[in-house]
Amino acid sequence: MGQTYNKEKFDSILYYLNASDNSKENYLKRESLALKAKAIAREINSYSLQRKSNLQLLTLYQEAEKEDLYIKINHQNLNLARMYKDTLTVAYMTKNLGYYYFDKIEDSAYYYNNKAEKLFRSLKDNYNTAVVLLDIALLQKDEKDFTGSELTSIEGILLLNQIEDQTDEVIRRKAYFYNNLGMVFSGLTQFDKSIEYHNKAVELKLKLKGNNKASIDNSKNNIGNVLKKAGQYKLAIKIFEEILQDNGLGRDRPEFFALVLDNYAHTLYLSSNREKLPGLYHKALKVCDSLGKDEYNSIVIHQHLAEYYNDLGLKDSAKYYGHQAKRISEKYHNDDLLNSLLLLSKIEDGEVAANYLRSYVKLNDSLQKNERAIRNKFTRIKFETNQIEQENIKIAKERTWLIIIAIVGLVGSLLLYIIFAQRNKNKELQFIQKQQETNEEIYNLMLSQNDVIEEARALEKKRISEELHDGVLGRLFGTRLSLDSLNMNTSDDAIKTRSQYISDLKVIEEDIRKVSHELNTDFISDSGFINIIKTLVETQTLAYELQYKLESQGTINWDDVSNKIKIHFYRIIQETLHNIYKHAKATTVEISFKLKNNVICLMIMDDGTGFDVNRAKSGIGLKNMKSRIKEINGTINITSKKEIGTAVIIDVPLS
Q: Do 302 and 285 contact (CB within 8 A), yes or no?
């Protein structure tokens, strides 16, 4: 999936993205610009710009609270990152989904957070792994899996401690973990431990740069609540009063102000210091009402007011606030509804009270069952995520081993190939060497034969010389003396005698002409190579019990034929005779040499059983024969008929 570079389109994408980031423009225009950037990025197949466009759209949809579009784009970016094997972006998109589902669908939040944790761990990103673990710890705490939340929190703190650069963000996340541990141990009624962790959270928040008063006040409020639960009312009251000394708290943080005010009022109630009651309760409730909607925090205030009025015996007021608490808490169907039902069972009388008590028991059982189910689901999700991770690790290991085995197999095959190739090459070299040795042997044989020929030639010349010297010259000398003696005699007898001597001279002339002819004729011309072939054929046919016929056209001047061709002819005939003996079951073989258009034709025919040329396998002998023919630029043609015989025709050009 290669990227197509186009400068004009790249510039357009960057322009649209920058323009869509302008917060002064309206939402629809910003969305349109970001969508244009995304469309062009897809057109040029640029992953980085597609991802950037999607991230811009995510920001826009989050700001505009377009939840469906936010989820859609998040999944698109997730799938895109998977396609391009961008693990970091996959981890961030998975983390986003976990954060989105945090206060909506607990098991989905837990599922995506677990996946994100594994991804960040694989990237050795301790900070983001800890961030995801914090969300998991909070989910576990909300579902009353206090032990699980404690272990997750400690694991997150240990990861943050491993980070060398302890930035404000690292310290802040660590403070959140300690705050969660404080809440966990409060739920376990281990109040001293809870206060210890809350104090650690405050210590860390005090180290942060900037104004962190709001975050510190949150921790102080948590400490006050733990002290209240522990029955240490004086210390709790002191902490709440410290928080409320901020005159701007009601203006800057009205919801938190109402929460602290109610906690302060309830601590006074429990300590039997009720002078400021119910005024503080009503003040806190008024702040909640001023926000324009039923606030979650108002549930507890209504419960505290119902409890207060019931304690005073003012049943109508107690019932009013008790039912208000129940009405609001029914929207959430959690522990606050459970507490409201229990409170009404105490405020109401008779059967009405009994009904509320039964509803309380039923809801309590349902909530506990639901909490167990969610905890089990969390455990199952974690198990399945771990199982998938283990399977992925197993698959990765299997792939690694397969790659290793494939590489080893490939290297082994290559080595075997090299070994066999080298061995074949060595055999080929040995064969060539042996062939050269054989050729040298044949060549030496031919030289030896030439020596024999030269020796015979010298002997013959000596014989002719002796014959000339002792025979013809002696006769000439005698005739010359006789003619000299008759030179001056004119008698008839002398004339007759001279005539006889002249006839003798004619005979001597014929003898000289004959000797001259013999000297001009090479009595063994061209017979050297053919004699060698004849010796070969005679020897082999005798051993193979074959009859033979050898013919050589007289027009072939073997002295002009290269030794290389003659040696290969010799070896081809030798190999062919061996094949005839081995396979053909022949009784007769005919060998002939002919010259046509400067091409020597060697024909070898037998009267053997014959074979199917198309189906026959090429043995070593035939391969060697073809190799020899190729070396001398020749051609071979084999014809065969069953029960008739085989003909091998080899044509070799002389030049």
A: yes
How far apart CA 321 and CA 318 sit, in angstroms, is 5
Q: What is the pLDDT of residue 522?
A: 45
Residue 86 lies inside a defined structural domain of this protein: no
How far apart (Å, rounded) are the C-alpha atoms in residues 309 and 383? 50
| Same domain flag for 483 and 562 | no
pLDDT digits (tens, 9 = 90+) for 594-614: 988 889 999 999 998 888 877
What Cα–Cα distance (Å) separates residue 56 from each residue in 23, 71, 179, 221, 303?
A: 12, 14, 33, 38, 45
Does residue 540 sit within a domain? yes
pLDDT at 242: 94
Whether residues 539 and 503 fall in one domain:
no
Cα-based torsion angle of the residue sequence 153, 155, 160, 161 in order, rounded to the nearest 10 degrees: 110
Check residue 377 and give its pLDDT: 52
Stated pTM of the model: 0.58
Same domain, 422 and 471: yes
Task: Give CA–CA dist 178/171, Å, rounded.
Answer: 11
pLDDT for residue 485: 63
Position 189 scores a pLDDT of 93
Q: Specify whether 512 is located in the same domain as 557.
A: no
* Amino acid (one-letter) located at 524: I
DSSP 499-538: HHHHHHHHHHHHHHHHHHHHHHS-TTTTHHHHHHHHHHHH
* Single-letter amino acid code for the residue at 43: E
Supply the range of the domain harboring residue 443: 418-520
| Closest alpha carbon to 613 in 578, 644, 642 | 642
pLDDT of residue 473: 57
Q: How far is CA 137 from the centre of its chain?
A: 38
Assigned domain for 307 exists: yes
Q: Would residue 329 count as lying in a domain?
A: yes
Are residues 480 and 567 located together in one domain of the fold? Answer: no
Beta strands in 556-634 (DSSP E): 588-596, 599-606
Residues 552 and 621 in one domain: yes
Give pLDDT, residue 375: 52
Q: Would strands 599-606 and 547-552 be described as parallel, antiparallel, or unpaired?
A: unpaired
Q: Helix (H, G, I), strand (E, B), or coil: what is residue 638?
A: strand
pLDDT tens per residue across span 75-100: 888 898 888 899 999 998 888 888 88
Of 520, 553, 576, the residue at which a domain comes to its end is: 520
At residue 523 the predicted structure's pLDDT band, cuts being 50, 70 and 90, is: very low
Residue 569: CATH number of its domain: 3.30.565.10
Q: Say if residue 531 is in the same domain as residue 647.
A: yes
Phi, psi of 596 (to 5 degrees): -145, 125
Q: Among the three residues 520, 549, 583, which one is the final residue of a domain in this structure?
A: 520
| Model confidence at 420: pLDDT above 90 | no
User: Binning pLDDT at 50, 70 and 90, where does residue 525 land?
Assistant: very low
Cα first-last separation, the chain: 60
Same domain, 496 and 549: no
The closest alpha carbon to 446, from 528, 383, 561, belongs to 528
The count of structural domains within the chain is 4
CATH code for position 320: 1.25.40
Name which of 224-238, 371-385, 392-406, 425-439 the model is least confident about: 371-385
Task: Retrieve residue 513's tokens.
Answer: 């002409």
DSSP secondary structure, 238-274, as one string = HHHHHHHT-TTHHHH-HHHHHHHHHHHHHHHHHTT--
pLDDT at 453 over 60: no
